[in-house]
Amino acid sequence: MEAYKELETRFRRLALIDEARAMLGWDWATMMPTGGAESRAEQMAELSLVVHEFLLDPRVEELLDEAELGVEMLDDWRKSNLKQMRRSWLHNSSLPSSLVMALSKSTSECELRWRSAKSEDDYSGLLPKFSLVVELVQEKAQAKADAFSVSPYDALLDLYDPGTRTQDIDPVFDDLTDYLPNFTDRVIEQQRTSEPLRPFEGPFRVAKQQELSKRLMEIVGFPFDHGRLDESHHPFSGGTSKDLRITTRYDEDDFTSALMAVLHETGHALYDYGLPGNWRRQPVGEALGMSIHESQSLLIEMQVCRSPEFIRSIAPMIRETFGKHALALNEDNLLRRYHRVERSLIRVEADEVTYASHVILRYQLEKEIISGELLPADLPSAWREGMRKFVGVEPSDDREGCLQDIHWYGGDFGYFPTYTLGAVCAAQFFEAATRDDPKILSGIASRDFGPLYDWLRLNVHSFGRLLPAPALIQRATGKKLGTEAFKSHLNARYLGAD
Predict the structure, then answer these.
(1) Between β-strands 227-231 and 243-248, what pairing exists: parallel, antiparallel or unpaired?
(2) What angle do CA 91, 114, 48 make, to 5 degrees?
(3) Exposed (0-12), middle (13-18) or buried (19+): which is 491, by Cβ within 10 Å?
(4) 104 and 126 co-located in one domain
(5) Distance of alpha carbon 327 from alpha carbon 319, whole angstroms
(6) How much is the mean pLDDT over the chain?
(7) Cross-strand partners of 227
(8) Rounded to the nearest 5 degrees, what angle is found at the Cα of 78, between the Cα atoms of 48 and 168?
């Protein structure tokens, strides 16, 4: 038991360092002057090395071995905590310190260069830095694959979704690949013959969008005494469970994208906020994985905040904020806009029908990059071909093509599939929640999210990493993860079918 207690102390210190890294990362993306980039890259690299060396201390392995000998003396929470400690140690012990430092520095530099490359449509200028990132990530993937006895790509998946493998993803994505093309055609054809959208007439001033965003965050349940909203190149949720930092980006010609990005990130933040407080700063108290994390953001954005019940309830607030646009901002026009389906070029602007196709494309490409089948120099052409195949449109430049997302340039390979796994999971959670508590739908219509969050805290948030994702989903919904609830939701919302 003493060994376990010492591990808890050590991992609490590690969590505090990670919290500091998170806040530096938020500052990097929002407030830091460009001239501070080189210094910040060095700071982040050094902290990454501190974490790495902390876990590689021979005493940590000794403590893990000793604690595991007495594992039967621990309760379920501590058993799970110990298991997560071992997993974290394995991920870190598989990498030499030199590689950790090199990755941290190269991804920071590449991510910074990506910002200008995207605005300038300059993939060739980014290619040398990106090629180095890919080379280092491949090296990381192979090292982790050797440690976990899995494929290199599966080893990267495990970083974001513990225990998830391509064999779990492929059946879900194959089903959606078969289902979505015909369904998308039917929806687009139906919408083509419906009443046309009333166009927006901007500008929608950023200050007004910020005001409205914060009001809606309050309605959904965001605790502003523990968080804030800022602006960045790419919307994200960061910070810590008690210091929530979310961002969005604004378009003065159309407020709808920024608004839903805010609500999406609010879903992420509320999941972090609802994690078990008794296990804060311990591995078992962390978010279960990115698929579950994305399920919470997509449940709020897609299942709830794009629902007729919610849109109708907030339409008066939207008209109040942007009063002169009253005709374009009536309930029916807002619903049609938020339910509009079209084959778009940009993932973060895609509707929920075509979004999965964007993700499946990225999943296929990043598997090929990690395996070496696809070279970084060939990514733009592979991207265009994939967009034609999976989405049905083709970008005219790299800005709207392979440069649109930050993930790969920051070294995040294995992250993308969690978005669509999260969407499938969100539909299944919401189906179960509304079945268990009929007050949830009426609450949403009256801007009362209490019943929904009561269910989410009880069935999802409060578990942290106590259970593996399949067990959590089975316990909360009574079913294994499948596409049935997701497809049923799409049919009901977009074709009016049960």
Answers:
(1) parallel
(2) 30
(3) middle
(4) yes
(5) 9
(6) 94
(7) 244
(8) 70
pLDDT at 49: 83
The verdict on 463 and 491 lying in the same domain is yes
What is the C-alpha to C-alpha distance for residues 237 and 245, in angstroms, rounded to an integer? Answer: 6
Q: Compute the distance between CA of residue 195 and CA of residue 336 in angstroms, rounded to an integer.
A: 9
How far CA 431 is from CA of 285, 423, 477, 487, in Å, comes to: 26, 12, 8, 12
Is the distance from CB of 264 to CB of 300 less than 8 angstroms? yes
CA trace torsion 65, 70, 74, 78 (10° rounding): 0
Backbone angles phi, psi at 222, to 5 degrees: -70, 130
Distance CA 269, CA 236 (A): 10
- What is the token pair recorded at 236? 């994200």
Q: What six digits make up the tokens of 138?
A: 């491949």
CATH of residue 237's domain is 1.10.1370.30
Q: Per-residue DSSP letters for 305-352?
A: ITSHHHHHHHHHHHHHHTGGGTTTTSHHHHHHHHT-----S-GGG--T
Whether the pLDDT of residue 465 is over 80: the answer is: yes
Pairing state between β 243-248 and 237-240: antiparallel
- Strands, sheet with 237-240, edge to edge from the N-terminal-most edge strand: 227-231, 243-248, 237-240
Range of the domain at 72: 2-142
Give the residue-averaged pLDDT of 154-161. Answer: 94
Residue 391 and residue 260 in one domain: yes
Is residue 279 classed as helix, strand or coil in its secondary structure? helix
Q: Which of 142, 175, 199 finishes a domain?
A: 142
Per-residue pLDDT band for 484 (boundaries 50, 70, 90) equals very high
Note the Cα 385 to chain centre separation in Å: 25
On whether both 378 and 459 belong to a single domain, the answer is yes
Specify the DSSP class assigned to residue 420. Answer: H
H/E element holding 480?
none
Name the DSSP class of 95.
S
Judge whether 444 and 319 are in contact, CB under 8 Å.
Answer: no
| pLDDT, position 158 | 93
**Residue 36 to residues 27, 29, 162: CA-CA distances in angstroms?**
11, 12, 34
Task: Check whether residue 61 and residue 94 sit in a common domain.
Answer: yes
Whether residue 276 is found in the same domain as residue 172: yes
Q: Which of 306, 393, 381 is nearest to 357 (CA)?
A: 393
Tokens 């060739």 belong to 124
C-alpha closest to that of 419 among 407, 410, 431, 409 = 407
Give the active site residues.
265
**Rounded distance between C-alpha atoms, residue 268 and residue 247, angstroms:** 11
